[in-house]
Structure formats: C-alpha cells, structure tokens
Amino acid sequence: MVLISETTTPGINLRWYLDTAGLKKSKAYLLNGVVIFLAWLVARILLFIYMFYHVSLHFDQVKQMHDFGKLLVFGVPLALSIMNLMWFGKIIKGLRKTLAKRQ
Questions:
Q1: DSSP assignment, residue 22?
Q2: In whole angstroms, what is the distance from residue 67 CA to residue 73 CA?
Q3: Could you tell me the residue ranges of all domains in the chain?
Q4: Cα–Cα distance measured from residue 58 to residue 76, given in angstroms and rounded to the nearest whole number
Q5: Burial (CB count within 10 angstroms: exposed 0-12, middle 13-18, buried 19+), residue 30
Q6: Counting beta carbons within 10 angstroms of the beta carbon of residue 5, is it exposed (0 to 12), middle (13 to 18) or buried (19 or more)?
Q7: How far apart (Å, rounded) are the C-alpha atoms in residues 50 and 93?
C-alpha cells in the first residue's frame, strides 16, 4: 500500500523538467502543480491515513508479530508520513505562492 505513494513521482519529475526548461510561468507548470497537490493528497496523505486505520482494525494480529515486523508496520510508515506531511506543507505553500502571482 505504501508503494502506491510513488505514483506522485512522475509529476515531480515533470515539474523539474518544466523548471529546468524555463517554463515556470507556463500553464503546464501551474497545471502540474495542481495535479501534484491532488495526487499527493490522495496517494501520500489520505492513503496513509487509511493504512493506519487498517492497521488499527487488525491491531490484535499486529501485536502477535515479531519486533521487526512491528517496526515495519509502525515505524517505517510513521517516518514516511512525517516526511510526506512536511513535503505536503511545502507543496501547499508553493501552490499558494504560484496562484497568488497569477492573480
């Protein structure tokens, strides 16, 4: 489930190409920013919320796992969630800045 979050990677790569090509003021760059925001929200925020909800539903099974398994179920997604939230904050800030310049 966590690997689904990688669906946002092509949009991030496209953003870099648009920036490198000097197309920061183009409609494609703006559209890419909006798509990244939506994709990030779904694939890296909402999906992780669902994943933690799913783990909580099956917590009795998770408790029976070995310590390393518990680390993989809790520690790794928690660390990724923190990083995803930090990046999502930057995406929101950048989108606001871009939209403010357009008006």
A1: T
A2: 10
A3: 2-101
A4: 17
A5: middle
A6: buried
A7: 25
**pLDDT tens figures, 61-95:** 988 999 999 888 889 889 999 999 999 999 999 99
Q: Please give the Cα distance from 55 to 59 (Å, whole number).
A: 6
How much is the pTM? 0.85
Task: Name the token pair of 58.
Answer: 């099956």
Q: Distance between CA 19 and CA 23 in Å, rounded? A: 6
Question: pLDDT digits over 15-74, tens only?
Answer: 999 999 999 999 999 999 999 999 999 999 999 999 999 999 999 998 899 999 988 888
Structure token digits, residue 77: 């997604």
3-class DSSP assignment, residue 64: coil
Residue with the two structure tokens 């494609």: 28
- Whole-angstrom CA distances from 61 to 41, 55, 77, 90 are 29, 9, 17, 36
Rg over CA atoms, the chain: 17
- ∠ CA 51-52-56, rounded to 5°: 120
- Length of the chain equals 103
